[in-house]
Amino acid sequence: MLSITHTENLTGARISGDFWDLDEINQAIYSVIGDENKYYDWEGSRKRILSVSYEIRHASQAHRHVNFVGNGLNKEAKIHHEMVSCEKNIYYSVDVLWPELIFTIIALNDFIRLYSKNHLYPSLDVQVTTIRKFQSVVGEALQPVMSKEEHDRFMNILSSNETNVQEYAIQFVDMLNFKYIDLTKEQREKGLGKFALKLAIQDKDYHMMRDQVIKSAHDSKRAIHDMLITKKYPEEIEW
After folding, report:
1. What is the reported pTM?
2. Could you tell me what percent of the chain has a pLDDT over 90?
3. Residue 3 pairs with which residues in a beta bridge?
4. What SS3 class is residue 143?
5. CB 24 within 8 A of CB 35
6. Contacts of 185 (CB under 8 A, 6+ apart)
7. pLDDT value at position 119?
8. Which of 123, 114, 178, 133 is nearest to 17 (CA)?
9. What does the pLDDT look like over 178-213, one tens digit per residue?
10. d(CA 169, CA 107)
11. pLDDT score for 78
12. Measured between alpha carbons, how far is 81 from 73 in angstroms, rounded to an integer?
């Protein structure tokens, strides 16, 4: 079963599941976001989603964390069915910075809308329902560290499809990642709700950064999603 939990220092979310749980998410993401340049105005957001998908895929290949989880099979059941089997399943997991994961579930809303235009029954589509489940599990994990008002507002925005990441300045996600990494555990616990809403609602800070990125992109004759930040992520993160 897919689960999302907080890392020890609340730096990120730990995405856990067996191979099939993680593969199911990835296959749904690949189907919904489409091929490269299919939705050019969403290319930056697509790349951010793929970066999380990349981590999930490597987790499913045992390239990240591996642990064993009880599967409910006990000795009595094995004797009754005359079977030799392990009492634990292998679960794989990966840690993702919270702002990055929050942006991912927000951005997936746009791709669900785009994908749904070509499907007769999108609400029953297996790829859409898989992603909706992923979004809901992330939202559930956020609830304990957000005030009721923050969580209700965030989930309302997410579920009402009011989000829009067309031509999004993805550099803003990096800025929030850097700020979040620099916080203490206590500050993260108190502030994660504000980070979530800052990603869900494009406030003046976002628009100021976007204007700067657009100017730089215009001067260098590059697309907004091709503009790179110069600051580097730390080699080691205290999760």
Report:
1. 0.91
2. 77
3. 16
4. helix
5. no
6. 9, 10
7. 87
8. 133
9. 999 999 999 999 999 999 999 999 999 999 999 999
10. 12
11. 52
12. 11
Nearest to 56 by CA among 130, 147, 110, 109: 130
Tokens of 41: 């105005």
Q: Where are the domains of the chain?
A: 3-226
27 burial via Cβ count (<10 Å: 0-12, 13-18, 19+): middle
Sign for the CA dihedral angle at 223, 226, 230, 231 comes to: positive
| Weakest mean pLDDT among 6-15, 50-59, 85-94, 146-155 | 85-94
Tokens coding 12? 């990120």
- Three-class secondary structure of residue 68 per DSSP: strand
Q: Tokens 């993160």 appear where?
A: 237
What are the tens digits of pLDDT across the range 215-228?
A: 999 999 999 999 98
Task: Indicate if the alpha-carbon torsion angle 208, 220, 37, 35 is positive or negative.
Answer: negative
Q: Can you list the pairs that 3-10 forms with residues at least 24 positions away whose Cβ atoms lie under 8 Å?
A: 3/137, 4/137, 4/138, 4/140, 4/141, 5/141, 6/141, 6/145, 7/95, 7/239, 8/239, 9/185, 9/188, 9/238, 9/239, 10/98, 10/145, 10/185, 10/188, 10/189, 10/192
Residue type present at position 203:
D
In this model, does residue 44 exceed pLDDT 90?
yes
